[in-house]
Amino acid sequence: MLYGTLLGTELYQSFVMTKICYRALPMSAFTTLQKRVFPAYFRIQSILLFLTAATHPPYGPLSLIKSPGDWIPLVLGGVLAALNLITYGPRTQDMMVERIHQETRDGRKFNDAEKSEEMKVRNKAFSKAHAMSIHFNLLAIGTTVWYGFRLASRFQFEK
Q1: Would you state the pLDDT for residue 119?
Q2: Which of 35, 46, 143, 148 has its CB 3.0 to 4.6 Å from that of 77, i.e. a possible disulfide?
Q3: Is the peptide bond before 58 cis (omega within 30 degrees of 0)?
Q4: ∠ at Cα 11 (8, 12), nearest 5°?
Q5: Residues contacting 44, CB < 8 A, separation 6+
Q6: Which class for 72: exposed (0-12), middle (13-18), buried (19 or more C-beta within 10 A)?
Q7: Residue 157 pLDDT
Q8: Tell me: the pLDDT tens digits for 94-142?
Q9: What is the DSSP string of 136-149?
Q10: Alpha-carbon distance 61 to 52, whole Å?
């Protein structure tokens, strides 16, 4: 059950919620929402990864220790989620705020055709942090799917 919650949360937040909000909200509202949602998402993702490992069948962590193929995707997913929670999520958020302040100083939007040199620097820093966060999130989803295949491989169907 926790595995399904983890995978569903990752897929919904990454591919449904974010896309709908980006299309439906003005950029300032979208930015404000993302500042609140993504830290919570990264916390929930980390907690669900831990709980998924703790409830690994049949004996939780004791079963994981015996099977590296099962614990490797969970540990890797946990490291990626932690990097987003501790490093790249906050860095992306800080860069987003810096761009907003630069917009105020420049009197232009971050995506206007003409940009100040300072805005170019801020855009580059934001893009770099955001790309790392996106890639780590996608890799974490990949590790969750990998773990799911490991779980599914244990099923034995009898006629």
Answers
A1: 94
A2: 143
A3: yes
A4: 80
A5: 9
A6: middle
A7: 83
A8: 999 999 999 999 999 998 889 999 999 999 999 999 999 999 999 999 9
A9: HHHHHHHHHHHHHH
A10: 10
Tokens at residue 81, please? 């989620």
Of 84, 87, 56, residue with least CA distance to 72: 56
pTM, full prediction: 0.89
Residue 102 CA: distances (Å) to CA of 76, 99, 109:
36, 5, 9
Q: What tokens does 88 get?
A: 């790249």
Number of other residues whose CB lies within 10 A of the CB of residue 114 = 7
Helical H runs in the chain? Answer: 2-11, 18-24, 27-54, 61-65, 68-83, 89-106, 117-152
